[in-house]
Amino acid sequence: MTVTNASIPTVPLLIDGQWLESASTVWRDVLNPATQEVLARVPFATAQEVAQAVAAAQGAFASWRKTPIGARARIFLRLQQLIRDNMAELAATLTAEQGKTLLDAEGDIFRGLEVVEHAATIGTLQMGEFAQNVAGGVDTYSVLQPLGVCAGITPFNFPAMIPLWMFPMAIACGNTFVLKPSEQNPLVTVKLVRLALEAGIPAGVLNMVHGGEEVVNALCDHPHIKAISFVGSTRVGTHVYQRATLAGKRAQCMMGAKNHAVVLPDANKEQTLNQLLGAAFGAAGQRCMAASVVVLVGEAQAWLAELAHKACAMSVGAGKDNPDLGPLVSCAAKERVLSMIARGVEQGATLALDGRAIRVDGYPNGNFVGPTILSDVTPGMRVYDEEIFGPVMIVVAAATLDEAIALVNANPNGNGTALFTQSGAAARRFQEDIDVGQVGINVPIPVPVPLFSFTGSRGSKLGDLGPFGKQVVLFYTQTQTITQRWFADAASVGQVNTTISLS
Ligand code: NAD
């Protein structure tokens, strides 16, 4: 954390509809990962500012919860159009602060935009249930009521998509929201929140604070916050889940991954190799759904040389030039990835492709690491056991599909997986026996569209309900049941009944 030149723009807080300069004395630079240019300074909000943001959300809840469904939905209809109209500028900001290519930045925004579109259909998603004559003349119906103030804590790797997983659905359900984006790249998130206000979200309904551990802990502890949505690493997500649930809140934490792509020898070779490379090295491997482990089954093990040959041809550069992969998000991330590769080699892995020495013309200071492939890897090596979150493909051998399934199920993470095959029977068995949230069959990054919900198994998720789709409507609401009887005349009063029966 550094304090920089005062001429550099500062990132504002949003409290009760006002964009404010933080009074914090602790600030951090937002850097362009391709150049190290300082783009802005982001504050670590004070405890008082966090409390003000929550108080604003609490105050706005009283009227927002009673705002008609149609009025809420129309805000998201407007927001989706505003996001489309501003796509190029949003993508340029995202690329500048995060590093991913412009095309991939548009993909990041588009996958969030799909959730905004879904929020615009909140009417049918929020319908309750009704049953007539559950007892003589008695009817019961249920409604989904908003919870109150909800908070969202997001990671650096999808600074558009993941905030859009959270606040649109929470607000469409009638809640108010406090968003805390990643302190590494908050600029595109700020632009999206500005568009949300322009679309008509009233003052106090959406608030934004910045910071790290202290701000997150304050949100977990605050008595007026009813639910926390978190996406990020397993270490922090586990902490957030424990702290928030101990304070009586609902929590959903989507966390780290080690996604295995299993390749059977009957797969379409050319198509499969291309898909593996895109899924392992796209966004410089900084996707929670990256295919970071490739399991070559039986004769498919002979494909390694071709995989390395194709990976070697992938271009690396600044995201704005649309290469195949851009830089890692920070110098620290690059150092960590380099040390993981070195540790892999020390522990006996073979460097089938070494991208460590990459140089990018015109960008001497970028956090670049070229596509790297480590083969002969086995469980127990650090590169297998830990999430690397960089452009490093781990290649593991398995003799049979059964052996591959056992390997995937023995890994502590269960975020995503994919099988490449032309056999329907093999795909059917894989899907049924694999204990992973997102399963792709000849689809390398099987992130569902918002008609479904994102999920996760074992160490990749804490909490029962996932982001977006129908599950998040249940997460952001509580069910109320109303059981009612209307007497037609005063004569049908009946007698005192001390049983629990409704009749
Ligand atoms: P991170 O856990 O470091 O940070 C996530 C958020 O937590 C940030 O807002 C950060 O400010 C905050 N934070 C950081 N340290 C904290 C602490 N000690 N106490 C409280 N809060 C803290 O994650 P990241 O590096 O930004 O993102 C990468 C990770 O996110 C990877 O592990 C990736 O797999 C995971 N991820 C998971 C999914 C998913 O859906 N499962 C999606 C995207 C990213």
Describe what this molecule looks like in 3D.
The chain has helices at residues 47-64, 69-85, 87-98, 102-119, 122-125, 161-172, 187-198, 213-221, 234-246, 269-281, 304-312, 331-346, 382-385, 401-410, 424-433, 469-475, and strands spanning 13-15, 18-20, 27-31, 38-43, 129-135, 138-146, 149-153, 176-180, 206-208, 225-231, 250-254, 260-263, 293-297, 350-353, 372-375, 392-398, 413-414, 416-420, 438-441, 457-458, 461-462, 477-485. The chain is of the alpha/beta class and 503 residues long. Helices cover 37% and strands 21% of the residues. The termini are far apart. Helix 1 packs across helix 8 (213-221), helix 2 (69-85) runs antiparallel to helix 4 and helix 4 (102-119) runs parallel beside helix 6. Strands 14-15-16-13-12-18-19 form a seven-stranded mixed β-sheet, sandwiched between helices. The chain has a six-stranded mixed β-sheet with strand order 9-8-7-10-11-21, with helices on both faces. The mean pLDDT is 96. Bound molecules: nicotinamide-adenine-dinucleotide (NAD). Nicotinamide-adenine-dinucleotide is lined by residues 153-158, 180, 182-183, 212-213, 216, 231-233, 236, 239, 254-257, 288, 387, 389, 415, 456, 460. Residues 153-158, 180, 182-183, 212-213, 216, 231-233, 236, 239, 254-257, 288, 387, 389, 415, 456, 460 line the site of nicotinamide-adenine-dinucleotide. Its EC number is 1.2.1.27.
